[in-house]
UniProtKB/TrEMBL annotation:
Lineage: superkingdom: Bacteria
Name of the protein: NAD(P)-dependent dehydrogenase (Short-subunit alcohol dehydrogenase family)
Organism of provenance: Amycolatopsis endophytica
Matches recorded under InterPro entries: NAD(P)-bd_dom_sf (IPR036291)
Alphabetized Gene3D superfamilies for the sequence: NAD(P)-binding Rossmann-like Domain
Amino acid sequence: MTQTKTFLITGVSSGLDRAFAVKALDAGHTVVGTVRTPADTEAFDAPHPS
């Protein structure tokens, strides 16, 4: 049985943290992420709606 995990990731709008967040979401996990601006939130949420 696969266990779903929740990750807290800072800076999900770019770089390695974004890549890690995307992989976690694609694997079915939950990601709680931080960003600097509202525009960064929209850019991250677009391909991964909650």
